């Protein structure tokens, strides 16, 4: 082999390594070692998931419009917008469950919309109507109501994820729900629209009433939820239910303030029945748990077995006598 020259068989691997190293530029080398070099495509969203969120956004628009109408002193339309938002809030969850379009995003959006619609908007409507006459005290009452609504919604989100809740707990809310609190707290305005004179004691009474509703919202009072009502209807009740729903909407549109006043009073009168029913469920659960933990009763004997005398203990078997004389290896002291 000539001196100073490498053999072709030895130079070939070095040339290939050098060529492979120069083949990839800096950017190509980065793309080579990426875990996912392909562009990610957005996942298509189903329409059945989008429809409940659109209803929630429509309710949010109604709540924000109610705030504007209250600032413009158009209280009748402002209250109507709150009622419309409450109706939309009552159907968006049912629509999501019917279409199987529930999602975590929809739940969070619903909570934020409820805070604006049933916390901020009613508080501002009451403040612009009469609470501003009390100065700072009226503003504090409005703040307390709005904050109580936010706390009520936060507690509902936490308790809904509790895996240890019994199945019957879904029939109850813990505290007055936010939509019901918003409709209920506007009762003084309903009475004012019915012709009740706006006297000087109206503002202090409204302040106390607003604080009372705020307390009911953050309390531990069991309240009927109504979520499991109307899932199944008997065939013979379809027509009466349809007629009743149409009649209720017709009366609400034709006579809104009497209907809202009567509905609010009936709802407040039904609150004491929630704890009674809740304790009844608790009592049944405690009885079932005590029955499950009790020891099982002894098996029952038949009459013929009970009349038989108890069996006598077996006699000891006689031990065979040992022939000591025939055993020469037995020690004499044992004989």
Structure explained in plain terms:
The chain has 335 residues and is mainly α. The protein has a domain of 217 residues: Up-down Bundle (Four Helix Bundle (Hemerythrin (Met), subunit A)). It is 64% helix and 2% strand. It has a two-stranded antiparallel sheet. Helix 3 packs parallel to helix 5, helix 5 runs parallel beside helix 7 and helix 6 runs parallel beside helix 9. The chain is globular, with a radius of gyration of 40 Å. The mean pLDDT is 79.
Please supply descriptive tags for the structure shown above.
mainly alpha; 64% helix; two-stranded antiparallel ribbon; 13 helices; Four Helix Bundle (Hemerythrin (Met), subunit A); globular; 2 strands; single chain; 335 residues
Write the layout of secondary structure elements.
Elements: H1 8-23, H2 26-32, H3 47-71, H4 75-99, H5 104-129, H6 136-159, E1 172-174, H7 178-185, H8 187-193, H9 202-218, E2 222-224, H10 238-254, H11 256-270, H12 273-293, H13 303-307
Antiparallel strand pairs: 1-2
Helix pairs in contact: 3-4, 3-5, 4-5, 4-7, 5-6, 5-7, 6-9, 7-9, 8-11, 10-11
Give the low-pLDDT segments: none
Give the terminus-to-terminus CA distance: 111 Å
Strand and helix order: HHHHHHEHHHEHHHH
Q: Based on helices, strands and strand pairing, what is the structural class?
A: mainly alpha
Average pLDDT: 79
In the CATH hierarchy, what is the superfamily of the domain at 47-229 and 250-283?
CDP-alcohol phosphotransferase transmembrane (TM) domain
Proportion of residues in helical segments: 55-70%
How much of the sequence is in beta strands?
Answer: under 5%
Instruction: Count every helix, treating DSSP H or I runs of 4 or more residues as helices.
Output: 13
The coarse overall form would be globular
Largest sheet: 2 strands, antiparallel
Biggest sheet: strand arrangement: 1-2
Number of strands: 2
CATH architecture of the domain at 47-229 and 250-283: Up-down Bundle
What is the CA-based Rg, rounded?
40 Å
CATH class of the domain at 47-229 and 250-283: Mainly Alpha
Quote the CATH topology of the domain at 47-229 and 250-283.
Four Helix Bundle (Hemerythrin (Met), subunit A)
